Amino acid sequence: MTDFDRKKHWENIYETKALNEVSWYQPSPTTSLEFIKENTNTLEDKIIDVGGGDSFLVDHLLNLDYTNITVVDISAKAIERAKTRLKDKALKVTWIVADVADFSPTEEYDIWHDRAAFHFLTNEDDIENYKQTAAKAIKPNGSLIIGTFSIDGPFKCSGIDIKQYSKESLTTCFSNNFNHIKAVNYSHPTPFNTTQYFIFCSFKKA
Fold it and tell me: Which CATH architecture describes the domain 7-13+27-205?
């Protein structure tokens, strides 16, 4: 898949499919919200949602009065859709169009959250870049929250390969810079009456 255009693929997804026509559709991202609440100290903590697209996590964070929210996604169309849905509230959010595999943050964050992007990185160089970027972008004692397809999850999503993880493999993956705190298995009901299995882990920057 050396010629695979990741950005083009995701722009096409968001150009052609409605919000509830994708497997990751989740009106209430309960697990993500629980992890974020457990790892924030104040409503002013800086939170970045990696691969946030047009998910509803940002809506819920705004409704909870978090004030420093950044959403980064490879798809400009996904971010455009989220901004249209949020209307004036979108002005309270920092939006970044970038491929997380070569993302260069200009700020540091208290919380790095990702339930959408990391498991799509199957190239070892991309994975290593992601790990180094997260380590640089997360503040001392900040939190990394990762939700990925588990070892019981699918081998593909949206027609492309993914990388499955367990609690142990995620912990090993980030062990150079982060200490594992918590793991939760999550069964995600898709709009197509199927179930996708995830593992969510939280880590503290070492």
Answer: 3-Layer(aba) Sandwich (3.40)
